[in-house]
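Sharing a chain and its predicted structure for anyone who wants a worked example. Both blocks are below, sequence first, tokens second.
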Amino acid sequence: RRCLRPRPARRAGKMEGYQLHSVRAASVNVFSVLTTLAVFFSLVYVALFKWRRRRLEKLASQLPGPPALPVIGNGLEFLGDPEEVMAKIVALCSRYESPFRIWIGPILLIVVSRPDDLQIVLNSSKTLEKDPLYRFFRNTVGTGLFSAPVEKWKRNRRAITPAFNSRLLEQFVPVFNQQNRVLVSKLSEKVGRGQFNVWDYISPATLDIICQTALGVDVKAQDDPESDFALALPRASELDYMRIQILAPP
């Protein structure tokens, strides 16, 4: 007897294998094309981005500052908790003459630490607009004088200016004296006991003064550092700082 071989089935298997190989090859080709296009458009975008910012980068290069890495700039130098970041900023202020530049990704920051330079910046009408990072504080302090956009800030400033006259401020002197006496008493307990964080004492004193003068409420933050309000404010500041680190644009 002759053995019948399934030639049609074998041919069908070869055709299926050839088709599968063709599909894979086509997929690889499509992926290569898409990758090439993505790289090309990325390079074009970077080139246009650099071209539009050429004047900014040229002026920034004339200022002193730490060496910046491509893309991330000096971002790695500011990783850490708020105390570590502040210590690094203080070290940079000691190392470089004011003003100096820092790159956080594509964002240029000009650091001013000399009083004469600060006076020029603070008295200029061209520096009223808040940095976009201030939006992260609006959940904590709203859109008051601290974080309001410049147009709203101008309206609020005009409305509140009459409240800051000398006669009205003189009425707050007893409050200043009362809270400062409490502060001095707290600080005197630390004399001769080594280093300590003065912020833990200045912050509650400031909170007491602001709440008692502006709101008419004595929260007694210095007498009760564990009160809900006294603990909530620094915690809110820490959360705002975390949001800036995580959500701020590179």
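Comments welcome. Residues 165-247 form one domain.
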